[in-house]
């Protein structure tokens, strides 16, 4: 209960309460951080699966992922949000389904990066094609009821949470 309340406050205070332009910058900054981390890290460290310690927003199952697996997870979430946000903006109320479906990325490698770049560019470009004023909503089990604007804020928050996980995974697997 407390974790859910804190997550909702973080989404509201750190992302949702800020301007759309700020959220775009936050998202782009997180995407650039992922790119920089991957570019500067040897592949074995990006594939390594030494568990990361508990981090805010990172579930126990996520602690065992490699950096590449975390990026694959982000790709899956980005793809889902790209389908969801425009529908919310069009005024449709939606069901999110089980978010646990994003908790099982397969072992992967550098092939995740072209998809990451493509999906990140599409998310960053949503403000050019959407009004973010549609009345559709979806209920997220952790972050509560979201409209298209909240979904976009969630994209920025979600990626930022995983940047710290990727960074920590790289550190641990570079020491091995």
Q: Write the CATH homologous superfamily.
A: dinb family like domain
Roughly what is the average pLDDT, rounded to an integer? 94
Give the biggest sheet.
2 strands, antiparallel
Q: Count the domains.
A: 1
Strands, helices and their partners?
Elements: H1 2-16, H2 20-39, H3 43-47, H4 67-89, H5 112-129, E1 138-140, E2 144-146, H6 148-175
Antiparallel strand pairs: 1-2
Helix pairs in contact: 1-6, 2-5, 2-6, 4-5, 4-6
Q: What can you tell me about this protein's structure?
A:
The protein is about 60% helix and about 5% strand. By secondary structure, the chain is mainly α. The protein has a two-stranded antiparallel ribbon with strand order 1-2. The termini are far apart. Strand 1 and strand 2 form a beta hairpin. Helix 1 crosses helix 6 and helix 4 runs antiparallel to helix 6. The longest helix is centred in the last third of the chain and has 28 residues. It has six helices and two strands, in the order H-H-H-H-H-E-E-H.
Quick overview of this protein structure:
The protein is mostly helical and 176 residues long. Helix content is 62%, strand content 3%.
Key phrases:
globular, Four Helix Bundle (Hemerythrin (Met), subunit A)
């Amino acid at each position: 209960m407390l974790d859910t309340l804190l997550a909702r406050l973080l989404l509201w205070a750190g992302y949702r309460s800020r301007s759309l332009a700020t959220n775009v910058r936050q998202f782009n900054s997180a995407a650039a951080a992922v790119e920089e981390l991957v570019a500067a890290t040897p592949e074995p460290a990006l594939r390594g699966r030494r568990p990361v310690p508990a981090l805010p927003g990172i579930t126990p199952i996520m602690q065992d992922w490699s950096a590449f697996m975390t990026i694959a997870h982000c790709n899956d979430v980005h793809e889902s949000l790209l389908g969801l946000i425009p529908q919310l903006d069009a005024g449709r109320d939606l069901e999110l389904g089980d978010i646990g479906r994003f908790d099982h990325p397969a072992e992967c490698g550098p092939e995740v990066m072209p998809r990451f770049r493509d999906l990140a560019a599409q998310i960053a470009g949503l403000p050019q094609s959407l009004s973010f004023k549609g009345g559709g909503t979806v209920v997220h089990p952790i972050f509560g009821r979201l409209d298209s604007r909240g979904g976009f804020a969630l994209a920025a928050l979600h990626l930022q949470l995983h940047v710290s996980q990727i960074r920590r995974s790289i550190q641990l697997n570079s020491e091995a």
